[in-house]
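Troubleshooting: if your tokenizer reports a length mismatch, compare your output against this known-good record of 455 residues.
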Amino acid sequence: MKAKISGKRISVLIVDDEDIALKAFTRILRSEGYEVVGTVKGEKAIGLIHTRRFDIVLTDLLIDIISGLDVLSAAKERCPETEVIILTGHGSVDSAIEATKMGAFHYLQKPVRPDELRNIVKRAVEKIQLTEKIQDLEVGDVNDFPSILGTSPKITDIKRLIWRIKDSDSNILITGESGTGKELVARAIHESSPKSQGKFLAFNCASFTDDLLSNELFGHEKEAFTGANKSRPGLFESADEGTVFLDEVGDMSSSMQVKLLRVIQEREVIRVGGIKPIPINIRIIAATNKDLKKLCSKGYFRQDLYFRLNVISILMPNLSERRKDIPLLASHFLRLYSARTGKDIPGFSDEALGLLTSYEYPGNIRELENIVEHAVSMANDRIINIENLPRDLADYDFFTFHGQDEVLKTLAELEKEYIRWVLDRVDNKKSEAAKILGINRVSLYRKLKRFEFDD
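Known-good structure output:
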């Protein structure tokens, strides 16, 4: 049997300080067709993990100064898809169980029978192969939206969601802070949907009074008001068979909410000054930076309208929650504004990129774009240096203990927020985060589980 993944033999790293056990495990797994590397030293094992990828790691819990938990942590940080199997003696079963909570695939109690070893490794292989099949099916969902830049987990999840709903024309509610890219996601949804051949029309609901809003959305008949010299279709009519993006829908007045609800329910509009219903077939994608559930509970937003809009919901992450995407986004804006100004600026200095990556961005992607535009305007060299960035950029690089509306948080909420902030700053490296937090890795993993961290 030749166990393979992506056409390559499955690689296994065995770590055991007992040379006899190491040789026995190596012989058994090689006879099954696996590519096996073995070592009796924990430090060497971590070195091997850093230099190459292993599909499976089989490690004793108690090795030397470097423990099996250290090997587990290093393997998962190097490649989260690596499956780690823990070997343990009679007196350390509890620690092995704790290791499974930290991400280990399973544990085996010594002495290990050959059939037991073959079976557990086979199960790990089956899990890896199943994960690979799922990822193959999802390749298109990540790559089909080049306009949505980023590879961070939350952005990848949004791309996958868009891909899953590409055959639907249900209404969608996109929430998130200003500047997080809600309209960009709305356009991607439209372009991949059955409405893609129709128009995509965007409208900001916070920019108009009720009268102007009605006129823009519903249109008007001739002589409906002073100056109405001819009939004019509104946004809903013009977008027939397409998509309407309503930004800042949470700012709509109660009377406008009633009118919008009728459009959704009846699938028709009546122009201002008119009496004849005009049938329409549109998809509505709404967006807001407000908590519509809270507004509903206070009576400021209609609950029935909320449910009509929120058939599918998407939460846009803040830029500080997708820090690994900042260099990609900054490079995109650099190319854009370099072309506009006719300057040849291919990149950033290490210091400038480091500051851009560490900044908190209260204005999110829109603020990053403004910062890069400023830097391009100020640059005289073929690279963006730190002196080209706004002078006060570094002054905002701090962690705050308050949220929107200055709502006071519980101690548990603050602890969760701080742990998330530290993990973001160290690129999700658990060992480094644990050191900064002043706790061991096991305690950190317990907190991650308690707070239900999803990445």
